[in-house]
Design goal:
Layout (H helix, E strand, L loop, with lengths): L1 E2 L4 E2 L7 H24 L15 E12 L2 E9 L9 E7 L6 E7 L10 E9 L2 E11 L9 E10 L6 E2 L16 E13 L2 E9 L5 E8 L5 E9 L9 E10 L2 E9 L15 E8 L4 E4 L4 E2 L7 E8 L4 E7 L14 E2 L6 E6 L2 E6 L8 E10 L12 E22 L4 E7 L4 E8 L7 E5 L6 E9 L2 E6 L4 E6 L8 E18 L1
Parallel strand pairs: 3-22
Antiparallel strand pairs: 1-2, 3-4, 4-5, 5-6, 7-8, 8-9, 9-10, 11-12, 12-13, 13-14, 15-16, 16-17, 17-18, 17-19, 20-21, 21-23, 23-24, 25-33, 26-27, 26-30, 26-33, 27-28, 28-29, 30-31, 31-32
The chain binds beta-D-fructofuranose.
Beta-D-fructofuranose binds next to strand 3, strand 7, strand 11, strand 15 and strand 20.
């Protein structure tokens, strides 16, 4: 309309009551977040180059995609406190996966079908629009101490990648078939992909005996979905957990993988020590039957204390498969909660299948963040520190030739009372991360059995104030953990056991 008084045109947008409710809820959450941001941003443990929310609680990565020239990542978000609560979707975007910008909160739980949370899900582009497929979570009356719920799959759409509208037809997947061995209550975390003319989504569920499995649906328009099959399942006799959360179907350099986060896998020796795990099966998807044939044992994607619910995206621009995980673990102590925030994402990783194994490598784009590079070509014969090599926010690359050594300790974040210790023992081949003296938070060790390559071990270590991610031998193993040392813990100490020929390359970030 034209207003003669002001001599200006005004656009009137008519929106429905439901949409208004959603918009209002997003604005309210945004406002609250801004207030909390001032507190959270002052915390020493805030990451510099990892994704975290401006303030308050985050968990799983959601909706990882490329849309209109940018990478987008959404995340499970509770904007009202640093504890888990009714889930919203937070949002960040980046042109290069290295520098991320915060975007307005994308989803809030305002409808009868998602009133207790917009749970995890994924994103896909269709005809220039961005679709978010997520789980609507509703708690039933649990006054008897139960955990009864209704979970359905819901859709929201956007034509600018910023404002998302939930569709009229929600929930787009209302219920599971009842004639199969599927317990219908836990039904969440749809991950959508396109194959030929069809969209497919895998969703996490349980068998009636409570072992983990996933189902697959197909659709031509993302709105009408038909049940295809139980895509992969497990029995209670296998140690594969009681529920498979956050499943992903991934194509990785010509191989197919089912990536998932099983809850409740029991520890086997020093393996599977975290409360829940994330890992993969390699195999083959049959699109006619909807069955994914598992071809190997369940393998972990990360051997550290903190890595869960990873989500992949097929980066078609660069013909690679990327993955981001939540750098935390359910029920772990999270000391940053007292500082007004909780949780961060891993750095984006490139997946590659080699020797029947999924390797994870840091994305090369992070190289642009390197500053003040220092490097050494040295023989390490005794415990030492090296000039210029210390800090709390850095990338450290080392090649250690252990021909004349039995192993080493590499101590990071060292101060008088604190240290985080990486060690390798050539006899047992055990590589360890110990965080007994890493400051606040959980203590203990995590390990992986690592073979040397021509007597050498290759490490690529990312430190970002309260996190460490250690890539071993070109991504064959990764160990990721949160740590909470004091600000003065910036030392790096090399402790060879024997004589080590070392190449060391260090950059601040
Ligand atoms: C995994 C998970 C998902 C769920 C979400 C809720 O960490 O439990 O299964 O959708 O978190 O925040």
């Amino acid at each position: 309309i034209f207003n003669q008084k002001s001599n200006r045109f005004y656009k009137i947008v008519i929106i429905g009551v439901k949409e208004l409710k959603h918009t209002e809820a997003l604005l309210k959450a945004e406002k609250f977040q801004q207030k909390m941001e001032k507190i959270a941003q002052n915390d020493y443990w805030r990451p510099q180059y990892h994704i975290a929310a401006p303030a308050n609680w985050i968990n799983d990565p959601n909706g990882f995609c490329f849309y209109k020239g940018e990478y987008h990542l959404f995340y499970q978000y509770h904007p009202y406190s640093s504890q888990w609560g009714p889930m919203h979707w937070g949002h960040v975007a980046s042109k290069d996966l290295a520098d991320w910008e915060h975007r307005p909160i994308a989803l809030a739980p305002t409808d009868e079908y998602d009133k207790d949370g917009c749970f995890s899900g994924s994103a896909i582009e269709n005809d220039g629009k961005l679709y978010l497929l997520y789980t609507g979570h509703v708690d039933l009356d649990n006054s008897n101490g139960g955990n009864d719920r209704i979970e359905t799959q819901c859709l929201a759409v956007s034509d600018d990648g910023k404002h998302f509208e939930k569709v009229e037809n929600n929930p787009v997947i209302k219920a599971l078939p009842e004639n199969l061995n599927i317990r219908t209550e836990h039904f969440r975390d749809p991950k959508v992909w396109k194959h030929g003319d069809w969209y497919y989504t895998v969703v996490g569920v349980q068998t009636k005996e409570e072992s983990g499995q996933v189902v697959v649906y197909k659709s031509q328009d993302l709105i009408n979905w038909e049940f295809l099959n139980i895509m992969a399942t497990s029995s209670v006799k296998e140690n594969l957990g009681f529920m498979w959360e956050c499943p992903n179907f991934a194509e990785v350099n010509g191989h197919e993988a089912l990536i998932l986060s099983p809850q409740g896998v029991k520890s086997e020796g020093n393996k599977f020590l975290n409360l829940h795990q994330s890992g993969y099966f390699l195999g083959k998807m049959d699109y006619n039957t909807g069955i994914f044939e598992r071809e190997n044992d369940f393998e972990m994607l990360d051997y550290g204390f903190d890595f869960y619910a990873p989500q992949i995206m097929q980066d078609e621009k660069n013909n690679r498969c990327l993955m981001i995980g939540w750098l935390a673990m359910w029920e772990s102590e999270m000391p940053e909660q007292e500082e007004g925030w909780a949780g961060m994402m891993s750095i984006p990783r490139v997946l590659e299948v080699k020797n029947n194994k999924v390797y994870s490598l840091p994305i090369p784009e992070l190289k642009k963040l390197r500053k003040n590079n220092v490097n050494y070509d040295v023989n390490l014969v005794q415990n030492c520190i090296l000039e210029g090599i210390n800090g709390d926010c850095y990338e450290l690359n080392t090649v250690f030739d252990l021909t004349k050594a039995n192993g080493f300790n590499l101590k990071l974040r060292v101060s008088e009372n604190e240290e985080t210790v990486i060690s390798y023992d050539k006899n047992s081949k055990i590589f360890k991360l110990n965080r007994d003296k890493s400051g606040k938070g959980v203590t203990g060790e995590r390990e992986a059995k690592v073979n040397l390559q021509d007597e050498k071990i290759y490490l690529q270590i990312f430190s970002d104030y309260s996190s460490l991610e250690i890539f071993i031998n070109g991504g064959e193993y990764v160990i990721s953990s949160r740590i909470y040392p004091m600000q003065e813990a910036t030392g790096i100490v090399f402790e060879p056991i024997g004589e080590i020929k070392a190449k060391i390359d260090f950059s601040e970030m």
